[in-house]
Design a protein that fits this description.
Major Facilitator Superfamily protein; mainly alpha; Growth Hormone, Chain: A; transmembrane helix; MFS; MFS_dom; membrane; about 85% helix
Length: about 400
């Protein structure tokens, strides 16, 4: 039996490094693409391509990890990420950027579902929420430090951040190869071959949880795509202030996911924590409408971030508890819905912002309330099915 505390520490380091590598290129890619002749529309397509590939391939990688084990699939995902970063660094034409993003999205779609399934493999149901929260914290912290590193190293040469990301991914690959042990036994892999189909999974009440996560992802992506414009229009905040605001929000979210989620799910249950997270997110969206300066922007966005940070780990934990086995399929599908939210959210947010600057946040409130309604539908369907047994 694997030591879950030690392994969670390794998985935290793996996901932190993966997200640092991913985050390093975020502030650089638009300027890099522009240098190679990308129009704003082509830049949008370049950004969306990665998420589209993740949406398509995350469920596939999750199912493969159920069959052949978590470790080899995770190594494929991280190696794919490293390859895509080096291809980006060496790109001399726009089509090469698209090729690199397609390869990166296709292969790195393996990372999140496999790590999440690994956590489900090694944690008891009681500690599942804590494990999922730790991974969420690693993702959040990686997103904080990555862009900051990218911004610093891009000043002399725009290609340097891509090489840095590639090296970071190679270090992560070695960490997985030599330190991480396989979490599935051969017997476990054999059993997973008898897993239910995706169609069967959608006939169960858990389908509501995937839709709930999609609504949450759409609203978050819409906020992220438009908040810079909103903060400038409302409070005259520039890029430096925005960087600090997102860093404060990210740190608060990471602290909540790394420590509070586990205690809350253990005491209250995942369902109650999901509801609390959605309600706090609604409060955060509402407060954002009243931003006046840096301080209010930082506080109100952090309130939203705290609520949002409670939801994903709790949904992951609840889904894997209901699945009992075949965790890779479950977490792959959840990652796919997350990616779909990131595809739809930014253009929807931008379109709504064009109508009225408050609309992305009003729509965030509406989507969050709908997500809460979807959770109640899930509980009703669950109760009905249990009553029929």
């Amino acid at each position: 039996m694997l030591n879950s505390k030690k392994v969670l520490g390794i998985l935290f380091a793996v996901m932190f490094l993966v997200m640092v590598g991913f985050g390093i290129i975020i502030p650089v890619l638009p300027f890099y693409a522009e240098e190679l002749g990308a129009s704003p529309f082509e830049l949008g397509l370049l950004m969306a391509t990665y998420s589209v590939m993740q949406f398509i391939f995350a469920p596939m990688w999750g199912r493969i990890s159920d069959r052949i084990g978590r470790k080899p699939v995770l190594m494929i995902g991280i190696a794919g990420l490293a390859l895509s970063f080096f291809l980006l660094a060496l790109a001399t034409q726009l089509w090469m950027l698209f090729a690199a993003r397609i390869i990166g999205g296709l292969l790195s779609a393996a990372n999140m579902p496999t790590v999440t399934a690994y956590v489900a493999d090694i944690t008891s149901e009681e500690d599942r929420g804590k494990g999922m929260g730790i991974i969420g914290a690693a993702v959040g912290l990686g997103f904080i430090f990555g862009p900051a590193i990218g911004g610093v190293f891009s000043s002399s040469n725009l290609a340097i951040p891509f090489y840095l990301s590639g090296v970071s991914s190679l270090i992560t690959f070695l960490l997985v190869a030599f330190v991480l042990k396989e979490s599935l036994s051969e017997k476990g892999m054999t059993q997973e071959k008898k897993r239910p189909s995706l169609l069967q999974a959608f006939k169960t009440p858990t389908a509501n949880l995937y839709v709930l996560q999609w609504f949450v992802s759409v609203s978050l992506a819409g906020l992220e795509a438009t908040f810079a414009y909103f903060a400038y229009d409302r409070a005259g905040l520039g890029t430096v202030e925005l960087g600090y605001i997102f860093m404060i929000m990210g740190l608060a979210g990471a602290i909540v996911q790394g420590g509070l989620v586990g205690k809350m799910t253990k005491k209250l249950g995942e369902g109650n924590v999901i509801q609390i997270g959605i309600i706090i997110s609604v409060i955060g969206f509402t407060l954002i409408l009243f931003i006046q300066n840096f301080l209010t922007a930082a506080i109100f966005l952090t309130v939203f971030g705290l609520g949002n940070g409670l939801i994903r780990p709790s949904v992951s934990s609840l889904l894997t508890k209901k699945a009992k086995s075949g965790y890779g399929q479950v977490t792959g599908l959840l990652s796919s819905f997350d990616s779909l939210g990131r595809i739809i959210g930014p253009p929807l947010g931008g379109m709504l912002y064009g109508i009225a600057i408050i609309m992305p946040y009003v729509s965030g409130i509406i989507l969050s309330v709908l997500a809460l309604g979807i959770y109640y539908l899930y509980t009703n369907r669950t109760d009905t099915m249990e009553g029929q047994v």
